Amino acid sequence: MNKTILITGASRGLGLCFTRKYLEDGETVFAGVRDTSNPILRMLLEEYPDTLIPVTLEVTDSNSVHEATFLIGKYTKSLDIVINNAAIHNSTSFEILENANIDDCLPVYNVNSLGPLRVVKEFIPFLRNSSLAKIINISSESGSIGACEREKEFDYCMSKAALNMGTKLLANYLRKDKIVVLTVHPGWMRTDMGGSRAHLDPYEAACQLVELFKNINSTDTPIFIDNKGDAFMW
Ligand SMILES: NC(=O)c1ccc[n+]([C@@H]2O[C@H](COP(=O)([O-])OP(=O)(O)OC[C@H]3O[C@@H](n4cnc5c(N)ncnc54)[C@H](OP(=O)(O)O)[C@@H]3O)[C@@H](O)[C@H]2O)c1
Question: 183-206, pLDDT tens digit by residue?
Protein backbone atom coordinates (compact mmCIF):
# COMPACT_ATOMS: atom_id res chain seq x y z
CA MET A 1 0.00 0.00 0.00
CA ASN A 2 1.31 3.44 -0.79
CA LYS A 3 2.49 5.66 2.04
CA THR A 4 1.21 9.09 3.05
CA ILE A 5 3.95 11.63 3.62
CA LEU A 6 3.98 15.26 4.74
CA ILE A 7 7.07 17.30 3.84
CA THR A 8 7.64 20.88 4.99
CA GLY A 9 9.70 23.29 2.89
CA ALA A 10 8.80 21.38 -0.28
CA SER A 11 9.19 24.37 -2.63
CA ARG A 12 12.91 23.91 -3.39
CA GLY A 13 16.15 22.28 -2.27
CA LEU A 14 16.04 19.02 -0.35
CA GLY A 15 12.30 19.29 0.39
CA LEU A 16 11.45 19.46 -3.31
CA CYS A 17 13.79 16.53 -4.01
CA PHE A 18 12.13 14.44 -1.26
CA THR A 19 8.78 15.29 -2.84
CA ARG A 20 9.92 14.21 -6.31
CA LYS A 21 11.53 10.99 -5.04
CA TYR A 22 8.52 9.87 -3.00
CA LEU A 23 6.19 10.64 -5.92
CA GLU A 24 8.40 8.58 -8.24
CA ASP A 25 8.16 5.75 -5.70
CA GLY A 26 4.36 5.86 -5.91
CA GLU A 27 3.71 7.45 -2.52
CA THR A 28 1.18 10.17 -1.74
CA VAL A 29 2.89 13.44 -0.84
CA PHE A 30 1.40 16.40 1.00
CA ALA A 31 3.87 19.06 -0.03
CA GLY A 32 3.99 21.84 2.56
CA VAL A 33 4.86 25.15 0.91
CA ARG A 34 4.35 28.81 1.68
CA ASP A 35 3.20 29.54 -1.86
CA THR A 36 1.18 26.83 -3.60
CA SER A 37 1.53 28.64 -6.96
CA ASN A 38 5.22 27.63 -6.97
CA PRO A 39 5.94 26.86 -10.67
CA ILE A 40 8.07 23.73 -10.09
CA LEU A 41 5.41 22.24 -7.85
CA ARG A 42 2.78 23.09 -10.49
CA MET A 43 4.81 21.16 -13.08
CA LEU A 44 5.09 18.17 -10.74
CA LEU A 45 1.37 18.38 -10.15
CA GLU A 46 0.72 17.88 -13.87
CA GLU A 47 2.78 14.69 -13.69
CA TYR A 48 1.29 13.41 -10.42
CA PRO A 49 -2.24 14.87 -10.21
CA ASP A 50 -3.53 12.06 -7.96
CA THR A 51 -0.67 11.70 -5.50
CA LEU A 52 0.71 15.22 -5.04
CA ILE A 53 -1.29 17.53 -2.82
CA PRO A 54 0.23 20.98 -2.25
CA VAL A 55 -0.59 22.32 1.21
CA THR A 56 -0.10 25.86 2.42
CA LEU A 57 2.21 25.52 5.42
CA GLU A 58 4.05 28.37 7.13
CA VAL A 59 5.83 26.70 10.03
CA THR A 60 6.13 29.87 12.14
CA ASP A 61 2.35 30.27 12.17
CA SER A 62 0.44 27.86 14.43
CA ASN A 63 -2.83 28.76 12.64
CA SER A 64 -1.33 27.86 9.27
CA VAL A 65 -0.18 24.47 10.60
CA HIS A 66 -3.59 23.88 12.19
CA GLU A 67 -5.34 24.79 8.91
CA ALA A 68 -3.16 22.25 7.11
CA THR A 69 -4.68 19.46 9.24
CA PHE A 70 -8.13 20.28 7.78
CA LEU A 71 -6.91 20.11 4.19
CA ILE A 72 -4.95 16.90 4.71
CA GLY A 73 -7.83 15.48 6.77
CA LYS A 74 -10.01 15.62 3.65
CA TYR A 75 -7.71 13.05 2.04
CA THR A 76 -6.57 10.87 4.92
CA LYS A 77 -6.68 10.45 8.69
CA SER A 78 -3.27 8.80 8.75
CA LEU A 79 0.28 9.94 7.97
CA ASP A 80 3.13 7.44 7.74
CA ILE A 81 5.99 9.95 7.55
CA VAL A 82 6.34 13.60 8.52
CA ILE A 83 9.55 15.23 7.30
CA ASN A 84 10.32 18.50 9.05
CA ASN A 85 12.65 19.92 6.45
CA ALA A 86 11.86 23.67 6.33
CA ALA A 87 14.63 25.83 7.74
CA ILE A 88 16.48 29.10 7.26
CA HIS A 89 20.13 30.02 7.54
CA ASN A 90 20.52 33.79 7.26
CA SER A 91 23.68 35.39 5.85
CA THR A 92 23.92 37.50 9.04
CA SER A 93 24.75 34.22 10.79
CA PHE A 94 28.30 34.46 9.42
CA GLU A 95 29.11 37.71 11.28
CA ILE A 96 31.48 37.45 14.22
CA LEU A 97 29.82 38.01 17.58
CA GLU A 98 30.84 41.69 17.84
CA ASN A 99 29.03 42.45 14.57
CA ALA A 100 26.04 40.16 15.10
CA ASN A 101 22.55 41.46 15.82
CA ILE A 102 21.37 39.01 18.46
CA ASP A 103 17.73 39.88 17.78
CA ASP A 104 18.16 38.49 14.25
CA CYS A 105 18.54 35.05 15.84
CA LEU A 106 14.94 34.84 17.00
CA PRO A 107 13.31 34.13 13.61
CA VAL A 108 15.84 31.36 13.04
CA TYR A 109 14.77 29.60 16.24
CA ASN A 110 11.17 30.14 15.33
CA VAL A 111 11.53 28.34 11.99
CA ASN A 112 14.21 25.75 12.71
CA SER A 113 13.48 24.69 16.30
CA LEU A 114 9.84 25.55 16.96
CA GLY A 115 8.47 24.95 13.43
CA PRO A 116 8.91 21.16 13.67
CA LEU A 117 7.24 21.12 17.09
CA ARG A 118 4.21 23.01 15.75
CA VAL A 119 3.92 20.49 12.93
CA VAL A 120 4.28 17.41 15.15
CA LYS A 121 1.83 18.80 17.72
CA GLU A 122 -0.90 19.19 15.10
CA PHE A 123 -0.23 15.95 13.25
CA ILE A 124 0.20 13.55 16.21
CA PRO A 125 -3.33 12.12 15.73
CA PHE A 126 -2.52 11.37 12.06
CA LEU A 127 0.77 9.71 13.01
CA ARG A 128 -0.90 7.60 15.70
CA ASN A 129 -3.25 6.22 13.02
CA SER A 130 -0.31 4.75 11.07
CA SER A 131 1.00 1.32 12.03
CA LEU A 132 4.67 2.39 11.86
CA ALA A 133 4.88 6.17 11.73
CA LYS A 134 8.10 8.13 11.40
CA ILE A 135 8.95 11.72 12.25
CA ILE A 136 12.10 12.85 10.48
CA ASN A 137 13.55 16.15 11.59
CA ILE A 138 16.15 17.42 9.15
CA SER A 139 18.92 18.69 11.36
CA SER A 140 22.59 19.31 10.63
CA GLU A 141 26.05 18.43 11.84
CA SER A 142 26.10 22.07 12.94
CA GLY A 143 23.63 21.12 15.70
CA SER A 144 26.15 18.77 17.27
CA ILE A 145 27.66 20.28 20.43
CA GLY A 146 30.25 17.50 20.73
CA ALA A 147 31.60 17.93 17.20
CA CYS A 148 31.44 21.76 17.12
CA GLU A 149 34.57 23.60 16.00
CA ARG A 150 32.89 26.75 14.62
CA GLU A 151 33.19 30.17 16.27
CA LYS A 152 30.07 31.75 14.75
CA GLU A 153 26.72 30.89 13.07
CA PHE A 154 25.24 31.09 16.58
CA ASP A 155 21.63 31.25 15.45
CA TYR A 156 21.70 28.35 13.00
CA CYS A 157 23.88 26.04 15.11
CA MET A 158 21.96 26.74 18.30
CA SER A 159 18.63 26.31 16.50
CA LYS A 160 19.66 22.86 15.26
CA ALA A 161 20.99 21.87 18.70
CA ALA A 162 17.59 22.88 20.10
CA LEU A 163 15.90 20.86 17.35
CA ASN A 164 17.99 17.86 18.40
CA MET A 165 16.85 18.23 22.01
CA GLY A 166 13.24 18.60 20.83
CA THR A 167 13.66 15.42 18.82
CA LYS A 168 14.96 13.48 21.82
CA LEU A 169 12.03 14.66 23.95
CA LEU A 170 9.60 13.64 21.21
CA ALA A 171 11.30 10.26 20.81
CA ASN A 172 10.90 9.63 24.55
CA TYR A 173 7.28 10.77 24.51
CA LEU A 174 6.23 8.86 21.40
CA ARG A 175 8.09 5.58 22.04
CA LYS A 176 4.98 4.08 23.64
CA ASP A 177 3.11 4.81 20.37
CA LYS A 178 5.89 3.04 18.42
CA ILE A 179 6.53 6.23 16.44
CA VAL A 180 10.11 6.42 15.17
CA VAL A 181 11.58 9.90 15.72
CA LEU A 182 14.89 10.86 14.13
CA THR A 183 17.04 13.94 13.69
CA VAL A 184 19.19 13.63 10.60
CA HIS A 185 22.22 15.37 9.13
CA PRO A 186 21.54 15.21 5.38
CA GLY A 187 25.07 16.09 4.22
CA TRP A 188 26.31 19.27 2.56
CA MET A 189 24.10 19.81 -0.50
CA ARG A 190 24.08 22.17 -3.48
CA THR A 191 20.92 24.10 -2.61
CA ASP A 192 20.17 27.77 -1.98
CA MET A 193 21.23 27.14 1.61
CA GLY A 194 24.22 24.90 0.96
CA GLY A 195 25.64 26.91 -1.96
CA SER A 196 27.30 25.75 -5.17
CA ARG A 197 30.49 24.41 -3.53
CA ALA A 198 28.68 21.72 -1.58
CA HIS A 199 29.49 18.04 -2.14
CA LEU A 200 26.09 16.54 -2.72
CA ASP A 201 23.39 16.81 -5.33
CA PRO A 202 20.17 17.29 -3.31
CA TYR A 203 18.20 14.75 -5.38
CA GLU A 204 20.86 12.10 -4.79
CA ALA A 205 20.89 13.05 -1.11
CA ALA A 206 17.09 12.65 -1.00
CA CYS A 207 17.29 9.21 -2.69
CA GLN A 208 19.88 8.04 -0.17
CA LEU A 209 17.85 9.34 2.77
CA VAL A 210 14.57 7.84 1.54
CA GLU A 211 16.28 4.43 1.36
CA LEU A 212 17.72 4.95 4.84
CA PHE A 213 14.34 5.91 6.34
CA LYS A 214 12.76 2.83 4.75
CA ASN A 215 15.21 0.61 6.62
CA ILE A 216 14.68 2.14 10.06
CA ASN A 217 11.65 0.43 11.52
CA SER A 218 12.29 0.42 15.24
CA THR A 219 12.32 3.03 17.99
CA ASP A 220 15.36 1.26 19.36
CA THR A 221 17.94 2.90 17.05
CA PRO A 222 20.20 5.95 17.31
CA ILE A 223 18.15 9.15 17.10
CA PHE A 224 20.70 11.68 15.81
CA ILE A 225 22.16 10.14 12.66
CA ASP A 226 24.06 11.07 9.51
CA ASN A 227 23.01 10.26 5.94
CA LYS A 228 24.44 6.74 6.23
CA GLY A 229 22.44 6.01 9.36
CA ASP A 230 25.46 6.18 11.67
CA ALA A 231 24.97 7.77 15.09
CA PHE A 232 26.10 11.39 15.22
CA MET A 233 27.68 12.88 18.33
CA TRP A 234 25.08 14.92 20.24
N1 LIG B 1 21.97 22.53 2.20
C2 LIG B 1 22.81 21.96 3.07
O3 LIG B 1 24.00 21.76 2.79
C4 LIG B 1 22.31 21.52 4.42
C5 LIG B 1 23.24 20.96 5.32
C6 LIG B 1 22.78 20.49 6.55
C7 LIG B 1 21.44 20.59 6.84
N8 LIG B 1 20.55 21.14 5.95
C9 LIG B 1 19.15 21.18 6.31
O10 LIG B 1 18.40 20.55 5.27
C11 LIG B 1 17.08 21.14 5.18
C12 LIG B 1 16.82 21.58 3.76
O13 LIG B 1 17.77 22.59 3.43
P14 LIG B 1 17.92 23.15 1.95
O15 LIG B 1 19.36 23.26 1.71
O16 LIG B 1 17.03 22.42 1.02
O17 LIG B 1 17.35 24.65 2.19
P18 LIG B 1 16.77 25.70 1.13
O19 LIG B 1 17.14 25.34 -0.24
O20 LIG B 1 17.12 27.04 1.66
O21 LIG B 1 15.17 25.49 1.28
C22 LIG B 1 14.56 25.79 2.50
C23 LIG B 1 13.10 25.43 2.43
O24 LIG B 1 12.50 25.79 3.67
C25 LIG B 1 11.32 26.55 3.41
N26 LIG B 1 11.03 27.49 4.49
C27 LIG B 1 11.84 28.45 5.00
N28 LIG B 1 11.19 29.11 5.97
C29 LIG B 1 9.96 28.57 6.07
C30 LIG B 1 8.84 28.83 6.88
N31 LIG B 1 8.83 29.80 7.79
N32 LIG B 1 7.71 28.05 6.73
C33 LIG B 1 7.70 27.06 5.80
N34 LIG B 1 8.73 26.79 4.98
C35 LIG B 1 9.85 27.53 5.12
C36 LIG B 1 11.64 27.30 2.11
O37 LIG B 1 10.44 27.75 1.54
P38 LIG B 1 10.36 29.11 0.61
O39 LIG B 1 10.73 28.67 -0.78
O40 LIG B 1 8.95 29.53 0.75
O41 LIG B 1 11.34 30.09 1.19
C42 LIG B 1 12.32 26.17 1.33
O43 LIG B 1 11.36 25.31 0.79
C44 LIG B 1 17.08 22.26 6.22
O45 LIG B 1 16.50 21.78 7.41
C46 LIG B 1 18.55 22.56 6.43
O47 LIG B 1 18.79 23.15 7.68
C48 LIG B 1 20.97 21.61 4.76
Answer: 999 999 999 999 999 999 999 999
67: left (phi over 0), alpha (psi -120 to 50) or beta: alpha
Q: Which atom in ligand 1 lies closest to the alpha carbon of residue 142?
A: 6
Please name which of 157, 137, 156, 138 lies closest in space to residue 147, comparing C-alpha atoms.
Answer: 157
Residue 62 CB less than 6 A away from ligand 1: no
Domain boundaries, the chain: 4-225
Q: Is 38 in the pocket of ligand 1 (CB under 6 A)?
A: no
pLDDT single digits (tens) 39-84: 999 999 999 999 999 999 999 999 999 999 999 999 999 999 999 9
- Distance, CA of 84 to CA of 102 (rounded, Å): 25
CATH 3.40.50.720 fits 4-225, yes or no: yes
Give distance in angstroms: CA of 94 to centre of ligand 1.
Answer: 17
**Ligand 1 close to Cβ of residue 163 (< 6 A):** no
Q: pTM of the entire structure? A: 0.98
- Residue 23 CB contacts under 8 Å (≥ 6 apart), including other chains: 29, 44, 47, 48, 51, 52
